[in-house]
Amino acid sequence: MSTLARKTKKAKFSTNRITALDIFIFIVLTLGALAILIPFWNVIMISFATQREYAENPLLMWPKEPTLNSYKALFADGSIGSGYWNTIKLMAVGLPLSMFLTVSMAYGLSRPKFPGKKPIFFLVLFTMIFNGGIVPLYLVMKDLHLTGSLWSVILAGSFSVFNMIIMMNYFQGLPESLMESARLDGAGEWRILFSVVLPLAAPIMATIALFYGVAFWNSWYDAMVFLRKADQLPLQNVLRAIIVESQTNASNATTIGQGGGAESFSTGMKMAAVFVTIVPIMAFFPMLQKHFAKGVLTGAIKT
Length: 303
Prior knowledge:
Mean pLDDT: 81
Number of domains: 1
CATH architecture: Orthogonal Bundle
Radius of gyration: 26 Å
Strand content: under 5%
Oligomer: single chain
Structural class: mainly alpha
Largest sheet: none
Distance between the termini: 52 Å
């Protein structure tokens, strides 16, 4: 065997060998994963536990007497279904609108020959640094006769300057020769955007869609300000109202000498509400995960 072959074989052997640093990194990552998973598992188990069992052992890994009382109390009045439906409508309309506004502005500002690029970008960036506040926004929605409508919540969260800047940086990193070739073939800007740019922008599209999706799913403040009817409230506001009511009932029951029943177990209802809220949005994350890290890094490198 030649000297070069022996060196190559030795190098391959050394790269496959587990070192002390590898073991240390594995232990650190395992501890980090447990630090995330154990509290999450504890939340789920508390939602299935009784009040007495939770009082005896707050750090539950598995309840001895699992019960669905917290979930029954959470879904008792049927408002959860209404909250889910309103949130689904919010995302079904708000997410495509947000993506269209973000993509169109990011593409325009990413083109070097776009007229008025610098002043427009400065004005957009100014709104990110200096926010007008909720009162001017409420007055605008009132003048547009949108208060009391889901459109007020949709439009209030339909555009993020931060997301637009990330997408703009990604578009600026694409080869300009691709756009020039499309223009020579007679394609307009909209055709270039949808036929050339967006097929190459799957990572950043998935990333921004996830950002907007999570924002709309967790939206509650705008709905609290603009909406008045209970049947219009999204899921987060409905869960908040149920939890506040359960805490009030538990406090009143304790004051008059009652309590200890399943109905007054407000902690179990909180954990059930957390579980009900995060599971649907978590189901979409694995489908976008392969694009997520690449989209964030690529969009953040070039400024």
